[in-house]
């Protein structure tokens, strides 16, 4: 909920780049302050040097309240505005402060990372994620693996007049996404539509390269189909009779 004592601070500010909700800003401000209090208390109790702090979110910002520009769309979408979020780790003596990595990771990596720093051997465990210790300690600069998102159902839009999704009625339609390196492929089950983006050159996913790069489409689609089979992913078998081939 909005923090009444903080809201006026942001009401005085002019909206900028899609950010203009003072109530939302007050909650972010309050969260930041409370993280500071947590760190302060850990230091007071001499626990800071032996505590791994992990901060993240489960999705991108709620598009009707805040924007993630230049990222496209928001929560509930598989464009970067819906799946890219803040993520930081703190472990004094192990993770160098004020360092940054652009290696793509997921929340699935948190569990094996925590186990690693807790001294628990994960070699015999079958985990979906990977320990991020080599990345966090700057032992490696590249973490080469495909990442997958799968959502074979519908998710309605918050506002049909204000969104950046494939069509205005839904944040996402049934589909899957695979990312490998800088390349990202969207696949939609209703009409077998494909979108391809190079995130290095086009982080906002504005320029679909599917038609001009069929070789990359084939490569990523094969990776995606293999993953469906390996994970027994639920795949819609019957076309939706209510689906309109013409996106509204």
UniProtKB/TrEMBL annotation:
Its cofactor is Ca(2+). Residues 19-120 form the Sulfatase N-terminal domain. The keyword ATP-binding does not apply. The keyword Repressor does not apply. It is an enzyme of class 3 (hydrolase). It comes from the Bacteria. One of its GO terms (molecular function) is metal ion binding. Keywords: Calcium, Hydrolase, Metal-binding, Signal. Its EC number is 3.1.6.1. Belongs to the sulfatase family. This is Arylsulfatase.
């Amino acid at each position: 909920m909005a923090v009444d004592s903080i809201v006026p601070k942001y009401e005085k500010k002019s909206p900028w780049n899609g950010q203009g909700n003072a109530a939302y800003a007050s909650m972010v401000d309050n969260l930041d302050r409370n993280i500071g209090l947590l760190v302060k208390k850990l230091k007071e109790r001499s626990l800071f040097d032996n505590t791994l702090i992990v901060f993240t979110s489960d999705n991108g910002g709620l598009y009707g309240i805040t924007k993630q520009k230049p990222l496209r769309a928001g929560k509930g979408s598989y464009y970067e505005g819906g799946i890219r979020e803040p993520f930081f780790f703190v472990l004094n003596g192990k993770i160098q402060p004020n360092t940054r990595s652009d290696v793509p990771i997921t929340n699935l990596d948190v569990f094996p990372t925590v186990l690693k720093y807790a001294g628990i051997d994960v070699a015999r465990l079958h985990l979906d994620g990977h320990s991020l210790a080599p990345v966090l300690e700057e032992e490696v600069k590249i973490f080469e693996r495909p990442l997958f998102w799968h959502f074979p159902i519908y998710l309605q839009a918050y506002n049909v007049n204000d969104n950046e999704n494939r069509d205005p009625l839904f944040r996402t339609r049934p589909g899957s996404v695979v990312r490998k390196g800088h390349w990202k492929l969207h696949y939609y089950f209703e009409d077998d539509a494909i979108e391809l983006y190079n995130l290095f050159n086009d982080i906002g996913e504005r320029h679909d390269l599917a038609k001009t790069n069929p070789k990359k489409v084939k490569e990523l689609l094969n990776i995606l189909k293999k993953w469906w089979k390996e994970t027994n992913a639920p795949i819609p078998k019957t076309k939706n009779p209510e689906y309109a081939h013409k996106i509204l």
